[in-house]
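User: Just a sanity check before I run the rest of the batch. Below are the structure tokens for the first item. I only need the designed sequence back.
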């Protein structure tokens, strides 16, 4: 049998060998012996605690150390001292600092009552006191190391230097009395003074919140000698316990009284203020959220919701006053540890001098020398920070005292709530299922497709049937959102295919849901012909039907607008609708073509089959259900591309090792290269033309407009075609860019005799040949039957005959479908890669292998792909492949080539765009001359109104029209000779809205100015002008709209990429015409516009308003917060409706309301609830729409329709939601006047 001594020796051996686990096992066995003495148990526990310490089992160390302290009576013993050290150390390692402070305080209390070990006592008290009072984690660590390193069981060799100011309660000393006063305001000191520690107590501690005269005996204990509540009872269990409770309270009062006598305790500013508040006869007037003479603002809302458990938030208060700030304090104790005053900055408005105030306490700041009299205007910036690691609702009140009453108070509230992924998935699936059940698809309906002898079917029916069968519209039986797609936000090699499939389905459903907002049950008016008056600048136009077809007009019940997502989809992506009679019982649904679109009207072409089967007649009405349809072909092709991609290593390259691009003098100074190439352009050509035996990831060619991306890729192609084995696939996002390569580069090379440069241009088969430039037609496959010409789809043999194939990303699907083998193209060059969705960009990459050289060129700061699903946006579906790789590649990286040299813009324009959009990376290579009068950045002020025609979806601003035309005329009359001839490339007028384009063109024609280009910004990519005039159109005159702000676009006011695209079209002058107040105060571009206007002000090119006047108006808007931009509000409000009374506003349940403070305990400042202030709502009642004129045309049989601008017919409507809730129809609807078609 193994003896105890043997086990002890073995355990000691294990300790020396650092075999901690086996040593713990032996000590466990030794501790099981019931015959152990007290000293042996303490020794075993001490040794076992050392083993636990080495194995990082801190909780076990805490348990053993507490056991040692409880067992051993000699508190000066080495084992007890070591146990206290370990206890404090483990609490700190576990970040349980309050328990560490309590342990150190208990040790300090023992020292005060003990007379032993007087040599070490002063040092020990000093070290422990400093540890308890440390609030900074670094200082805490230093004090902890002193505790662990000091030997407190031997004679001290050092003495504590006597100082003048000492806190006898916390055993800390200071050389300055001010430092001692600051210490006395700390929570640790207050806790020490107000606690009943320092004496030995024998009974339960008294209940909190009671006074000595409110302690009572427990009735149950008095009657029966027993209490079921036990330790939780607030009544005293006996006379002796009651007496001790009262003694404890008197002891605490005595400690506080003595501390006050020694000037070691005094009320803080917060306590004094709360005392004053509680004793005030009118407390509601002591602290107000607005006071006279103080202008204040906050950087963020006072109440906020945070969806992260480990959260932080910050408020920045800006206060302007003529009185000095006396104090800033946080009032509520309940959540004091979550709120902090982080900084206070002072700025004198007279001389703009500023300084930062020193904060000794992060809960309140007091300025003892504050003057109560008038002071020069001063601006204070106060930052309040919130941090938390738990869920809950946290409230705090911050006061700003300017030395007089009332005092400014602001109430803060933070809700930290969980963001449940499962709840989101469930809710999203519900929305998806609802969307699916409401749609007519081939899955649930018999759809009769539109067919006409006059209009060819724009879709390849065979190809469409294949795609639709492979990728049907998602419904509840086939689509389930995975948790990985819901929870993650990054694409990886492993999740790419499934994740992209799901996000594409989500985006498709989101688009359908947006379009479905215009699905209605309405009266469809049928006619043989109709007349349009699209806008006030064009003449009326008539359209006629033939071949048994009819036209139909429907009223949408709401306005179409280019600014809303749903309006944009209807206007740009909807070509057809499904309809059926409202009382139909079967599943048969008919397809109709959309002929024209108006502000709230849509004109349809109904097929002869639908007319015949439904018995429709001209000049009649029929109630129908309407559903707008989007083209599903692109989405199905993207799904098809994803499944054709063999692996995704190409688009997820390894970047931890930078690839090496071989260099040689012969390649660097190749005589065949164009001399106009700069160093970075040559670097790009060297990378792309690197031998294919050298594996490289996709090469990124990044550059703003005018840096020579197209020129560089063209010169790369010229170099590549010298190698007989190379085959090049050139892809662009737009047809115009693809044609530009042929007209500007490939065709001239072919004419010069370079036959290898002869490309094959693949076009969409149903595009009209006449719309393609004759030069480009030479390189297309065109079929002609004598009367009509059409594009042919190429064969593999056609592609094999050419070294260069030019396609768009969308038409590259034809190359995949024809069965070209992977690796057929040695080089795949993609231009405009930043404008396409990633799934669109990888379409040509399905034909690539690891040996294929891939290059992506584009500008990630200009117009990019549009995604309508917020869910998909959050998961980066809107990020192009070029932008994702740009962020993934390290910097610098040999395959990420930035072209910084701009060859087109004036240095002032380039400096502005470089600083605003391109991180200061661009510079001007070629010096451009400026106008003698106007600085290259110029602003002309207008204060007009943005309005809509009754039959239009866009906006116009007549004031800007006149200003633009006047400035164009001025520039034309004073056109500098050194700018070259005045032609269509001289001045480009750019605006976001079609109606503004029409009006500017019309006004210029009146002045006989025909050589000025006026375009929407979406149509100017790839173009350049000597002068660009921007008409921003929008103002702050419009009113609040029901659509969420995030879903509404304001053109140049909200879209940075749109604005960048417009500005970078200019060579020498950017002249902006607009409302500076709206530009600087509305939308995501407000800061950019403010910088633009400040630049104009600094260079004397701000016209129509001074910066001081603009600044004054902006300050007024920030303070009043009255007007909000609404792009859909009518431009006219009848007088009788202007004073319409708004309906009651629903108050948010989370908004707090003010309750009076309780008086019993001045230490407790309870949670406040604050009132929400409802905003006034202005209701705009539209005037009745006038009827359209009836036209009686001569009979014209079998005439194809002419595609002309749109118009509107306002019949009565009833939306599907109104039919479900018939009571809503009792409300007053807009009055629409019907008319009969001839």
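Assistant: Here's the designed sequence for the first item:
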């Amino acid at each position: 049998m193994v003896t105890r001594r043997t086990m002890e020796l073995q355990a000691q051996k294990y300790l020396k060998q650092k075999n901690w686990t086996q040593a713990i096992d032996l000590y466990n066995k030794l501790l099981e012996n019931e015959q152990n003495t007290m000293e042996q148990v303490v020794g075993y526990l001490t040794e076992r605690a050392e083993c636990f310490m080495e194995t990082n089992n801190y909780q076990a160390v805490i348990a053993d150390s507490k056991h040692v302290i409880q067992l051993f009576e000699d508190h000066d013993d080495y084992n007890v001292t070591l146990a206290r050290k370990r206890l404090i150390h483990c609490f700190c390692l576990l970040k349980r600092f309050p328990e560490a402070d309590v342990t150190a305080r208990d040790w300090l209390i023992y020292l005060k009552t003990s007379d032993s070990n007087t040599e070490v006592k002063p040092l020990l008290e000093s070290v422990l006191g400093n540890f308890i009072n440390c609030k900074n984690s670094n200082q805490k660590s230093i004090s902890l190391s002193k505790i662990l390193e000091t030997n407190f069981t031997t004679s001290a060799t050092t003495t504590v230097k006597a100082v003048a100011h000492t806190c006898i309660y916390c055993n800390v000393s200071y050389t300055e009395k001010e430092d001692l006063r600051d210490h006395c305001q700390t929570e640790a000191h207050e806790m020490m003074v107000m606690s009943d520690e320092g004496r030995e107590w024998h009974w339960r501690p008294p209940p909190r919140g009671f006074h000595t005269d409110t302690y009572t005996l427990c009735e149950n204990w008095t009657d029966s000698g027993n209490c079921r509540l036990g330790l939780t009872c607030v009544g005293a269990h006996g006379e002796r316990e009651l007496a001790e409770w009262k003694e404890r309270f008197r002891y605490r009062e005595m400690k506080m009284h003595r501390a006050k006598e020694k000037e070691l305790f005094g009320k803080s500013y917060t306590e004094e203020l709360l005392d004053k508040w509680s004793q005030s006869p009118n407390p509601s007037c002591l602290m107000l959220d607005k006071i006279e003479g103080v202008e204040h603002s906050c950087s963020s809302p006072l109440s906020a919701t945070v969806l992260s458990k480990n959260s932080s938030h910050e408020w920045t208060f800006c206060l302007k006053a003529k009185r000095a700030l006396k104090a800033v304090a946080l009032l509520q104790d309940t959540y004091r540890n979550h709120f902090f005053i982080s900084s206070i900055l002072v700025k004198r408005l007279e001389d703009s001098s500023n300084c930062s105030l020193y904060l000794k306490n992060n809960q309140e700041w007091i300025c003892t020398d504050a003057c109560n009299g008038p002071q020069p205007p001063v601006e204070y910036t106060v930052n309040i920070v919130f941090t938390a690691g738990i869920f809950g609702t946290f409230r705090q009140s911050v006061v700003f005292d300017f030395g007089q009453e009332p005092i400014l108070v602001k109430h803060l509230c933070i809700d930290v709530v969980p963001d449940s992924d499962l709840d989101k998935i469930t809710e999203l699936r519900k929305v998806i299922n609802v969307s699916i059940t409401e749609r007519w698809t081939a899955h649930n309906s018999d759809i009769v497709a539109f067919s006409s002898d006059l209009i060819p079917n724009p879709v390849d029916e065979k190809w469409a049937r294949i795609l639709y069968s492979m990728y049907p519209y998602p419904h509840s039986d086939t689509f389930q959102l995975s948790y990985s797609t819901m929870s993650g936000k990054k694409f990886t090699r492993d999740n790419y295919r499934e994740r992209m499939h799901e996000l594409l389905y989500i985006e498709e459903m989101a688009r359908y849901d947006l379009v479905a907002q215009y699905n209605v049950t309405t009266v469809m008016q049928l006619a043989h012909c109709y007349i349009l008056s699209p806008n006030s600048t064009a003449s009326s136009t008539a359209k006629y039907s033939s071949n048994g077809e009819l036209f139909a007009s429907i009223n949408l019940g709401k306005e179409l607008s280019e600014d809303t997502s749903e309006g944009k989809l209807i206007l740009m992506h909807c070509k057809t609708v499904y309809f059926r009679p409202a009382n139909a019982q079967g599943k048969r649904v008919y397809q109709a073509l959309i002929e024209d679109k108006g502000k709230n009207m849509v004109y349809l072409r109904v097929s002869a089959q639908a007319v015949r089967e439904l018995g429709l007649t001209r000049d009649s009405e029929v109630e129908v259900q309407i559903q707008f349809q989007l083209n599903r072909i692109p989405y199905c092709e993207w799904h098809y591309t994803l499944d054709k991609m063999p692996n995704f290593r190409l688009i997820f390259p390894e970047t931890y090792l930078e690839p090496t691009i071989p260099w040689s003098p012969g390649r660097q100074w190749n005589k065949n290269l164009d001399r106009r190439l700069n160093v970075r352009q040559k670097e790009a050509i060297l990378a792309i033309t690197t031998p294919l035996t050298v594996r490289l990831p996709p090469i990124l060619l990044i550059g703003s407009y005018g840096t020579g991306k197209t020129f560089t890729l063209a010169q790369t192609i010229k170099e590549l075609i010298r190698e007989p084995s190379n085959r090049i696939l050139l892809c662009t996002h737009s047809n115009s860019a693809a044609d530009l390569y042929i007209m500007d580069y490939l065709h001239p090379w072919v004419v010069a005799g370079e036959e290898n440069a002869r490309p094959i241009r693949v076009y969409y088969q149903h595009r009209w040949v006449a719309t393609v430039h004759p030069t480009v037609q030479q390189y297309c496959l065109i079929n002609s039957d004598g009367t009509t010409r059409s594009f042919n789809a190429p064969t593999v043999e056609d592609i094999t005959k050419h070294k260069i194939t030019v396609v768009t990303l969308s038409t590259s699907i034809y190359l995949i479908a024809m069965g070209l083998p992977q690796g057929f193209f040695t080089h795949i060059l993609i231009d405009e890669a930043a404008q396409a969705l990633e799934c669109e960009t990888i379409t040509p990459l399905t034909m690539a292998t690891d040996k294929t050289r891939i290059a992506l060129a584009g500008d990630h700061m200009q117009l990019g792909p549009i995604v309508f699903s917020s869910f998909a946006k959050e998961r980066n579906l809107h990020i192009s492949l070029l932008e994702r790789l740009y962020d993934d590649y390290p910097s610098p990286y040999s395959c990420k080539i930035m072209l910084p040299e701009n060859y087109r813009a004036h240095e002032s324009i380039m400096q502005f765009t470089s600083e605003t959009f391109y991180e200061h990376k661009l510079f001007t290579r070629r010096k451009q001359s400026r106008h003698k009068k106007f600085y290259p950045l110029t602003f002309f002020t207008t204060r007009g109104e943005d309005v809509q025609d009754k039959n239009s979806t866009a906006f116009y601003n007549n004031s800007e029209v006149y200003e633009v035309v006047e400035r164009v005329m001025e520039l034309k009359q004073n056109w500098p000779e050194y700018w070259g001839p005045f032609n269509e490339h001289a001045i480009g007028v750019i605006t976001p809205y079609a109606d503004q384009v029409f009006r500017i063109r019309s006004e210029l024609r009146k002045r006989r100015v025909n050589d000025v280009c006026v375009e929407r910004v979406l149509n100017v990519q790839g173009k350049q002008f000597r002068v660009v005039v921007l008409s921003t159109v929008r103002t702050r005159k419009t009113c609040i709209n029901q659509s969420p702000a995030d879903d509404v676009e304001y053109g140049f006011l909200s879209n940075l990429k749109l604005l960048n695209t417009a500005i970078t079209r200019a060579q020498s002058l950017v002249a902006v015409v607009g409302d500076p107040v709206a530009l600087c105060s509305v939308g995501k571009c407000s800061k950019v516009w403010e910088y633009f206007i400040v630049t104009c002000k600094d260079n004397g090119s701000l016209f129509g308003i001074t910066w001081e006047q603009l600044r004054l108006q902006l300050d007024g808007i920030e303070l009043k917060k009255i007007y909000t931009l609404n792009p859909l509000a009518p431009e006219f409000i009848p007088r009788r409706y202007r004073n319409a009374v708004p309906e009651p506003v629903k108050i948010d349940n989370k908004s707090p309301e003010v309750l009076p403070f309780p008086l019993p305990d001045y230490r407790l400042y309870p949670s406040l609830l604050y009132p929400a202030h409802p905003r006034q709502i202005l209701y705009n009642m539209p005037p009745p729409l006038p009827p359209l004129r009836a036209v009686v045309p001569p009979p014209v049989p079998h005439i194809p329709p002419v595609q002309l601008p749109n118009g509107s017919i306002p019949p009565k409507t009833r939306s599907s939601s109104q039919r479900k809730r018939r009571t809503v129809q009792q409300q007053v609807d807009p009055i629409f006047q019907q008319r009969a078609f001839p």
